[in-house]
Amino acid sequence: xxxxxxxxxxxxxxxxxxxxxxxxVSLLILGDSLSAGYGIAAADSWxxxxxxxxxxxxxxxxxxxxxxxxETTAGALRRLPQLIERHQPDxxxxxxxxxxxxxxxxxxxxxxxxxxxxxxxxxxxxxxxLSEIHIPPSMGPRYTRMFRQSFPQLAEQHPNxxxxxxxxxxxxxxxxxxxxxxxHPNTAAQVPIADILEPQLRQLLLQEVN
Length: 210
Description:
By secondary structure, this protein is an alpha/beta fold. The chain is built from 8 helices and 5 strands. Strands 2-1-3-4-5 form a 5-stranded parallel β-sheet, sandwiched between helices. Helix 3 (46-57) crosses helix 8, helix 4 packs parallel to helix 6 and helix 6 packs parallel to helix 7. The longest helix has 23 residues, at 187-209. The chain is globular. The relative contact order is 0.15.
């Protein structure tokens, strides 16, 4: 009887260790230079700031930053199957399209690439958050307007996708937060960006835990 009692206590103790590990939830960021930390130290980027906060306050949440400066939707689409296989995330935050827009790429092609990424992720039972992206008006008012409309349109086409407002919308208006090119946020902007995005991303992941 004592042996059985000991085995029962050991079983409960093991569950206490197993359950937190099983509750781990991961988010992969699939982005471009805005998320890759272009022009600043990688340790100072907003994804690293978010990860530090989660390690301290939500250790069951994991962030994987697969962003690359200069990335396009076509490039990310090619990389995505390998990223899914390697990391098997619960969520993917897509922050892409800016380089397509700045290079004047076909918006129909950009939307098709993003749509294929969403379909590929959802077919693997991975949930998707999509960031709105804005580009400067230098490409002309019609192209700029159609570019911005692309992201709400994608969210309508894929009703399970969570549309995240463009996190640079207010940051870009503050010169103290921008690098000399006027496009990329500087080191000082990374904590404010994390302040904007961390609560939204955390809320998504905590749905998987609760």
